[in-house]
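Human: Here is a favour to ask of a fellow structure person. Comparing notes only helps if you start from a blank page. I am asking you to supply a protein in sequence and structure-token form. Write it directly below this note and I will take it from there.

Assistant:
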Amino acid sequence: MERFYPIGTPGEPWTDEERRQWYEARTIERSYADEVLAKLDRLDDAFEISHYGALPLDSDRYPLMAVTLASTAPDAPWALITGGVHGYETSGVQGALRFLLASAPSYRDRLNLLVAPCVSPWGYEVINRWNPNAHDPNRCFYADSPSEEAASLMALVAGLGIEPLVHLDLHETTDSDETEFRPAVSARDGKTYERGIIPDGFYTVGDSANPQPDFQAAIIAGVAEVTHIAPADDNGQIIGSDVTQPGVINYPCKELGLCAGITNATFTTTTEVYPDSPNATDEICIDAQVAAVRAGLDFALANA
């Protein structure tokens, strides 16, 4: 088998030694404290900021933070918003923070909010999809998870005893998915790497067990006012999955261990922004995430 990644032997799954080599090749490229924690400090007293765990790699550097905003309405439903499950997907983190700072208070008369803006802080700092042990947190949301990031978030939600009406999990699809991640995961698992196509534009991933097409369509319509929607490829697909309506594909979220499957929320989606488009900027991508959250919450409230 031809070598397509610098670590490991082609065709053979990584050993612990190769996972160590991968980890030691990572470098810190930005600051979780400056870009995430400092922004949480700007929230006013209407918000409750909680520390729901820490990464054992460095518990002081990588506290896991959640924000709640209690509704003023009796019996208001809950909404769960998660960002940074893949730490390298910047607009998911910054979009969740911008929503908190600029938009969340306008929902206080209708919703209880739980926001985990950066589920994978080490991944955020090294700008990588995986955690320090070369696990993909967004394939690890299941019992006895090997990902501290996934296990801690599941414990947070379970401990609160809530069943959200809506869960929006904020992600990106980037060119590095093909230049780094997909070759890396193929090498790690001892498989052949086959190049895919990165879609140019925003799309959502619904749950094939609970697709909620009108909900997905409402998010697409909201985001279309901010940035362009990804077209289907020549096979009628986006990233290898059939397009069910413009800008929408579906995955079996619980079966794949995805964050979007951790609750039994009526309305769930994974947003996918494309920051490498020549027609997008960092600000557009962050605004697109906020638009997706607002459109999703508004639809859920109108159709609860």
Notes: The radius of gyration is 19 Å. The CA atoms of residues 212 and 270 lie 12 Å apart. The first strand starts at residue 48 and ends at 54.
